[in-house]
């Protein structure tokens, strides 16, 4: 099973809007996928570091949630490096909803990560 953390701009779960800004998303939607890549369960977590954080705090937080994959519309290079060090797979790319991002990942259409071109901090 995989546990996927998806950046979200709200607390609406799979129907919620995917966040384009990893470090400033208000929520993470955690989705556990079964061996057939079907969503088995979801949970919504407030991002305690959305307003202010130190480098590495959010990747450590995501790891503490038990995620082994993180999906985000965009993410800086340093965050990608932190996730690599933690053994967490990262995939970036914009999707209209959290559920659409998970579906794209499960179908192999959302993979790989490239850092944002500019720093948003």
How many domain units? 1
Described by strand count, sense and barrel closure, the largest sheet is:
5 strands, mixed
- Determine the N-to-C terminus distance: 34 Å
**Rg, nearest Å:** 13 Å
Order of strands in the sheet with most strands: 3-2-1-4-5
Pfam family, one: Nitro_FeMo-Co
InterPro entries: Di-Nase_FeMo-co_biosynth (IPR003731), DiNase_FeMo-co_biosyn_sf (IPR036105)
Domain Dinitrogenase iron-molybdenum cofactor biosynthesis: 17-106
Keywords: Nitrogen fixation
Write the layout of secondary structure elements.
Blueprint: E1 2-8, E2 27-33, E3 39-46, H1 57-64, E4 69-72, H2 77-86, E5 89-92, H3 98-106
Parallel strand pairs: 1-4, 4-5
Antiparallel strand pairs: 1-2, 2-3
Question: How would you characterize the overall build of this protein?
Answer:
This protein is an alpha/beta fold. It has one domain: 2-Layer Sandwich (Nucleotidyltransferase, domain 5). It is built from 3 helices and 5 strands, in the order E-E-E-H-E-H-E-H. A 5-stranded mixed sheet has the order 3-2-1-4-5, sandwiched between helices. Strand 4, helix 2 and strand 5 form a beta-alpha-beta unit. Helix 1 packs parallel to helix 2. The longest helix is centred in the last third of the chain and has 10 residues. The N and C termini lie far apart (34 Å). The mean pLDDT is 92.
């Amino acid at each position: 099973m995989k546990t996927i953390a998806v950046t979200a701009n709200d607390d609406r779960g799979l129907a919620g809007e995917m966040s384009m800004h990893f470090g400033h998303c208000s929520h993470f939607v955690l989705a556990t996928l079964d061996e057939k890549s079907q969503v088995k369960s979801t949970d919504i977590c407030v991002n305690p570091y959305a307003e202010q954080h130190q480098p590495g705090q959010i990747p450590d937080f995501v790891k503490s949630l038990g995620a082994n994959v993180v999906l985000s519309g965009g993410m800086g290079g340093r965050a990608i490096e932190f996730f690599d060090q933690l053994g967490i797979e990262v995939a970036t790319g914009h999707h209209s909803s959290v559920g659409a991002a998970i579906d794209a990942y499960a179908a192999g259409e959302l993979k790989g990560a490239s850092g944002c071109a500019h720093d948003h901090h």
